[in-house]
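Q: What does the assembly look like in three dimensions?
Context provided by user:
Components: two
Sequences:
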Amino acid sequence: MKTIAGAHKANAPQREQSRPVVLIRDLIAKFNEYPLVVFAASLILLLAVAAIFAPALSPHDPLAVNMEESLQGPAPKHLMGTDQLGRDLFSRILFGTRISLSIAFATVAVCLVLGVAVGAVAGYLGGVADDLLMRLVDIFMAFPGLLLTIAIAGMLGPSMQNLMLAMIATSWVGYARIARGAVLSVKECAFVEAARSLGSGGARILIEHIIPNIVHPIIVLATLNMGQTILSIAGLSFLGLGAQPPAPEWGVMLNEACSFMGLAPHLFIFPGLAITVAVMAFNFLGDGLRDMLDPRFKKEVEI
Amino acid sequence: MKSSLLAVRNLDVSFRTRAGLVRASNGVNLDIREGETLALVGESGCGKTIIALAVMRLLVENALITGEIRFRGRDLLSLDEEEMRNIRGREIAAIFEQPASCLNPVMRIGEQITEAVMAHEQCPKREAKMQAKEIMETVGIPAARYRSYPHEFSGGMQQRTMIAMALAGRPSLLIADEPTTALDVTVQAQILDLLKESALKNNTAMLLITHDTGIIAEMADTVAVMYAGTILEQGSIKSILKNPRHPYTTALLGAIGEGGLRPLPGTAASLCAVPPGCPFHPRCVLAREVCFRKVPELISVKGRKVRCHYAGRSKAVV
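A: Here is the predicted structure of the complete assembly.
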C-alpha cells in the first residue's frame, strides 16, 4: 500500500496543476462531438452578452424619439433603421434581448425551483402526500395557459409582472411531474438505502443524494422551456397582455410594426428575426443537451 | 464474559404478497457480544439480508415484524424513526454486497465519506474533511483520491469507500452483508483483513452475512446457519466447523472441500413455499417420515444448538 500511496503523491501535484486545462480540453472534446450544442450555446452566449451590455452596445437611446429620422431603412447611422417615431431599431432590439432573456430566465428559475421542490417531495414521500401534491399539479395542468394569462391580465391589468405570474402558474407543473418521476426511480437505488443505513435523514438524502441525480432531465426541460417562454412573452406582449409600449420588447415592436408593414418591412423583420434566433438557440441547445446527457442516445462507439 | 450487544429474540418477518404470505424469518434468535463476530451463513434467498435489514429497521413498510431486537438492552423495534436514525451509522452501520450501486454516482468519494462523518458529529465541514481523509488512509485509499468519483474506482476501492463510510460513525456493531461477494479472491482477502483489523482496533462487533464458508473460518467467533428463514444450527465457530451436527451444515461445509466442488442436490427452498416439517427435508440424506411432519425443535447438543430430529444421535449417522 505504501508504494502505491507514494506514487500517487508524486503524481498529485502535476494532476492538480493541469486540472483546469484538462477540464477545458475535455469540455471542448465533448462539445466537438455535438456541434449543434456548441452552435446553440454560442448563440445564447452572444444574446446574453447583448442583454447584459445593452446600454454600452447600443448606439442610441432606445426610447429617444426623433421624428425627423422616422421610418428610415438600415443605414450606417441606424444599423437596423428607425421606427415610426424615429427610435433606433438596433438599440431597441438590444434592449429587447435584455427584457426577453431576463424575464424568461426569471420565470424558468421560479418554475424550476417550485416544480422540482414539489415534485421531489411528492416522489420521495409517496403515499398520501404524493397524491395530494400531484392532484394539485393536475389542477394547474387543467388550466389552458393562454386563457389563464388573459384572465390574469383582465383581473390585474396587463403588465410584465402579471404575465410572469401567469406563465409561472402554467409551467411549473411540468417540472413537478418530471422531478417526481425521476425521484421515484432514483429513490429505489442502493445508494439511497446505504445513505439511510449510515444515519442520513430524509431531507439530507433528498437534497444531497437524489436531486443531484435528477438534474439531467431538469436541465433539458428548463432549456426547452426557455425557448417557449421567450415565445410566450413576445406573443402575449404582441397581443397587449404583457409589456406595454413604449417598452422596447420584441412582441410590442412587432405590434407597432403592423401599421407600417408595407412602408417599412424592416420594422417587423428584425424583431421577428430576434425572436426566431433566440427561440431556436434554446430549442437547439435543449435538443442537443438531451442527446448529450442521455446515455441511451450515445453515438456508436468507434472501434 | 463480554456483555451482550445485540440480542435478537423470536424474530418473525413476513411479507404479504400476491403469491401469499412470505415468511422470511421464523423465530430467529441471535446473540452478538461486544467485539465479537457472528457469521450468518446460508444459501441465496434464505433470509439473511432480511435479518440485517430488520436490525437496521430498513425493511419495506409492508413487512410484518414481530419479536424483539435488543441493542444494548433497548428494543429497536419500539423506537421511532428519529431515535432509530441516531442509532444508524453511529451505533450500527452496514456495508452491502454491491459497493458500486451503494455509492452516489454523482458525488465525489471524499465528500460521501465527509457526509458520513458529518451525519454523526456536529463539526465544521473542514474538520469533517480532515477526518474523512484520515479514515480514507486507514482503509487504504490515498487521500489524494478525495476528489474521485465512484466510477473511477475499482470494485475493491469502492468497497473500501463503503467501509470508510461505515467506520466514520465509529459504530459498535458493523453489519457486513456479503461484503466480498462481488470482489475477486485477492481483493477479497485484503478487504477481509481490513474489516478484521478495524473491528479489532475499535472493538467493533460484526454481523457478517455470507454464503462463503471459507470466510467464516477466518472471521467469525460464532456461526448461525440459516435455511429458508429458519436457524438450523448455531454455536461457536470451533465446534461447528470441526463437528457439524446438522446435515445441512455438513453439506454446506462439504460443498467446497477436498475432492473439489460437491454441490448440494436440489435447490434452496423458496420462502414462498417452505416445505412442511423440517424445511430441509426434501434435500436431506437423513430425511425420514418424522421430518415431513414435524418441525424439529432447536435443541442444545454438545455446546451448540441444532434443529434436527437426529441431532442427538451419533455422528456416524451423518
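Follow-up: The two ends of chain A are 36 Å apart (CA to CA).
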